[in-house]
């Protein structure tokens, strides 16, 4: 299925995970999900269009230590490019320009990537 991917990287769009989840669902479909190396490469290319080696962007992975990891759209978490460990409580994942994902507290503010289903 085709998807339109959007990345947001202005000062106005740097938000915590819950805020951006709401924004993506209102204006698009959801935060991006990553199911394969191919998806990860496409998103890495997208994030590198910003041309800032320090940028990170939320993806749709929410890691709750008491339940299994899930994508924000409800899909099971089967592909990972995570680095580091999640501390206690809930962590969310942000993609870095090298394609790896970092575990962060969901309250941290980051850029983000949304998709709109059915458009490419």
UniProtKB/TrEMBL annotation:
Q: Which SUPFAM superfamilies match?
A: C-type lectin-like
**C-type lectin domain boundaries:** 24-115
Mind listing the UniProt keywords for this protein, alphabetically? Disulfide bond
Instruction: Kindly list the residue ranges recorded as spanning the membrane.
Output: none
Q: Does the keyword Amino-acid biosynthesis apply?
A: no
Tell me if Transcription is a UniProt keyword of this record. Answer: no
- Classify the source by domain of life: Eukaryota
Q: Which PROSITE patterns match?
A: C_TYPE_LECTIN_1 (PS00615), C_TYPE_LECTIN_2 (PS50041)
Q: Pfam families in the record, alphabetically? A: Lectin_C
The record ties this protein, via PANTHER family, to:
C-TYPE LECTIN DOMAIN FAMILY 20 MEMBER A-RELATED, C-TYPE LECTIN DOMAIN FAMILY 4 MEMBER K-LIKE-RELATED
Tell me what this protein is called.
C-type lectin domain-containing protein
């Amino acid at each position: 299925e085709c998807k339109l991917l959007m990345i947001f990287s202005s000062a106005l769009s740097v938000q915590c995970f819950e805020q951006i989840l709401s924004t993506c669902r209102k204006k698009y479909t959801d935060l991006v999900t990553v199911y394969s190396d191919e998806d990860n490469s496409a998103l890495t290319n997208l994030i590198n269009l910003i041309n800032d080696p320090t940028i990170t962007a939320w993806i749709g992975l929410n890691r709750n230590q008491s339940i299994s990891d899930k994508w924000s759209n409800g899909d099971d978490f089967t592909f990972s490019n995570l680095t580091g460990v999640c501390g206690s409580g809930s962590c969310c994942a942000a993609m870095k320009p090298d394609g790896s994902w970092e575990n962060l507290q969901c309250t941290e503010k980051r850029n983000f990537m949304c998709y709109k289903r059915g458009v490419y």
